[in-house]
Amino acid sequence: MNKRITVEKKVLSENDRLAAEIRRKLSEKRILALNLVSSPGSGKTSLLEKTLKALNSELNMALIAGDVQTENDADRLKKAGGKIVRPIVTGGACHLDAKMITGVLEELDLDEVDILFIENVGNLVCPSSYDLGEDMKVVLISTTEGDDKPLKYPSMFRRSSVLVINKTDLLGLSDFDIEQVKNNARMINADLIVIELSCLKETGLETWYEWLRERTAAKKGR
Ligand code: MG
Ligand code: ZN
Q1: What pLDDT digit, counting tens, does each position of 106-159 carry?
Q2: Most CB atoms within 10 A, among 57, 103, 131, 135?
Q3: What are the CB-based long-range contacts (under 8 Å, 24+) for 103-107?
Q4: Which domain holds residue 201?
Q5: Which residues surround ligand 2, an ion (CB under 5 A)?
C-alpha cells in the first residue's frame, strides 16, 4: 500500500476512536450534537444566530464555531445571545477533527446543555470523512449555489441526515432549480429530511425549530 494512504488511514482511525469517546460522553449527558456542514457562505452562522434568538429561552445551546482564520463567527454567535460559544481556529486545516472537539469540550460545563452545535469549516469535501462524535450532520445549501452539488459531493449528502436549503427568498433570481436539488439529494440519500428556509426573510424557520425540539426531546427520552 502506498505510504500516504497508510498514514491517512491511521489518522482517520484515531479520529474515529476519539469521536466514539465524544459520542459516548455526550450521550451520557443526553446532549443532541449536530455537525453543520456546507460550502462557505451557505448560511451556517446565520441559521445559528436565528436559532439562538428564537430558542434561547427554551433550550440550552452550546456552540463551537470552526474557521480557518478569525473568530468572527463565534463573535456573531455571542452577540446573538450564545452563552456557551467557543471558536476553533484551525490555522489552515480545511475541516474540524475529533481531537479539536475533545480539547474544547474538556473546558466546558455541559451539565445543563441540551444541544451542541458544531459549525464546521465551510467545505463540502473532507468534513464528510471526519466524525466529530455528532448524532447527525446537517448539510446546508443555498440557492446561490449549483443545484448539482449533491451529485458533485455525494459523500457529504450521503452522510447527512438533514438538508437545509437556505436563501429561498432568492429563488427565481438564478437558474437554481429547487426541485432539481431535492431530486439530486434524494438520489444520493433517500432518507434525507429537507427543510426549506430563508434566514434573511425569516421564512420556514419554524420547521427547523420544530425539528430541533423533537430531536432534543427524543435524545432526552421524553
Ligand atoms: Mg460561518
Ligand atoms: Zn480538510
Answers
A1: 999 999 999 999 999 999 999 999 999 999 999 999 999 999 999 999 999 999
A2: 131
A3: 104/64, 105/22, 105/25
A4: 9-220
A5: 94-95, 126
Q: Which of the four pLDDT bands, split at 50, 70 and 90, describes residue 5? A: confident
166-180 pLDDT, tens digit per residue, is: 999 999 999 999 999
CA 127 / ligand 2 centre spacing (Å): 6
Which ligand lies nearest the alpha carbon of 122? 1
In terms of Cα–Cα distance, which of 122, 159, 151, 141 is closest to 196?
A: 141
- At residue 1 the predicted structure's pLDDT band, cuts being 50, 70 and 90, is low
Report the separation in Å between the CA atom of 9 and the middle of ligand 1, taken as the mean of its atom positions.
Answer: 29
CATH number, domain containing residue 22? 3.40.50.300
Burial of 221 (0-12, 13-18, 19+ CB in 10 A): exposed
Counting the structural domains of the chain, the total is 1
In a domain, 3, yes or no: no
**What does the alpha-carbon distance between residue 146 and residue 123 come to, in Å, rounded to a whole number?**
15
Q: Give the ligand whose atoms come closest to the C-alpha of residue 37.
A: 1
Q: How far is the CA of 41 from the centre of ligand 1 (A)?
A: 7
Ligand nearest to the CA of 66: 1
The reply to whether 162 falls in a domain is yes
Asked whether the beta carbons of 116 and 62 are under 8 A apart, the reply is: yes
